[in-house]
Specification:
CATH topology: Rossmann fold
Strand order of the largest sheet: 4-3-2-1-5-6-7
Protein name: Cell morphology protein
Largest sheet: 7 strands, mixed
CATH superfamily: SGNH hydrolase
Number of strands: 7
Order of helices and strands: HEHEEEHEHEHEHH
Radius of gyration: 16 Å
Number of domains: 1
CATH class: Alpha Beta
InterPro entries: SGNH_hydro_sf
Structural class: alpha/beta
CATH architecture: 3-Layer(aba) Sandwich
GO molecular function: hydrolase activity, acting on ester bonds
Length: about 220
């Protein structure tokens, strides 16, 4: 099938925040969806991680998970991010996929911390660019308003729009295009149900197949 020919043989590194930090969230369905199409995948999710935390090992306050290739997902004890430079040097991925946005959106803050978020995203994107690694950034989905994180549709739209304009040379996948507000059920306003994560995963893969960064990686 056409999708296999695009992804087959590619090595893909996936990093992200809490959506990837639990096997039953996005980590397993996304990892498996890409693996089924012939990619060699390394997924690493760290709860509470901001983009700048990936410049060096940064401990997580709430855990993480990792999965390599055909192995089982492992819940990490004493989880921390790893230096993106070291990950790129070790994995030598054809493509890096970043799933990040909700944590940095600072839903509990009265105003959008634009300058701080720009510094976070710019530092990670620069590090990826320095390694000449094609990259795709997946933005947050709508989730639900309220919950323990105080997520609002207005703030998540602001975050997504900001990322769309500031993650170049990475391609951007706008997850807000995949559903309507509140369509995907959540367990706490931010994290989806298992069905929601499976749907999000399928939509990410469809969008990834159209991303310019994937075309560059497949050359």
């Amino acid at each position: 099938m056409a999708t296999s020919s695009v992804l087959a043989g590619l090595t893909i590194l996936i990093i992200g925040d809490s959506h990837l930090a639990t096997p039953d969230f996005l980590l397993n369905p996304l990892h498996e969806a890409l693996s089924r199409q012939g990619a060699q995948v390394h997924s690493l999710g760290v709860c509470g991680a901001n983009a700048g935390d990936w410049l060096k090992a940064t401990p997580s306050p709430c855990g993480g998970a990792e999965r390599r290739g055909n192995g089982e997902a492992v819940v990490l004890t004493g989880a921390s991010t790893r230096s993106i430079g070291e990950l790129l040097d070790s994995d030598k991925p054809n493509l890096t996929l970043i799933v990040m946005g909700d944590t940095m959106a600072s839903y509990d803050k009265p105003s959008f911390p634009k300058a701080w978020i720009w510094k976070q995203t710019d530092s990670l994107v620069r590090a990826l660019a320095a390694h000449h690694t094609p990259c795709v950034w997946v933005g947050p989905n709508w989730g639900s308003e309220g919950g323990m994180y105080g997520k609002t549709y207005e703030r998540v739209k602001t975050m997504s729009d900001f990322l769309a304009k500031n993650v170049a040379p990475c391609s951007y996948i706008d997850s807000l295009q995949f559903s309507t507000k509140g369509e995907w059920a959540t367990i706490d306003g931010q994290h989806l149900t298992r069905t929601g994560y499976q749907t999000w995963s399928a939509d990410i893969v469809k969008a990834l197949l159209q991303a310019s960064a994937l075309k560059a990686a497949a050359k």
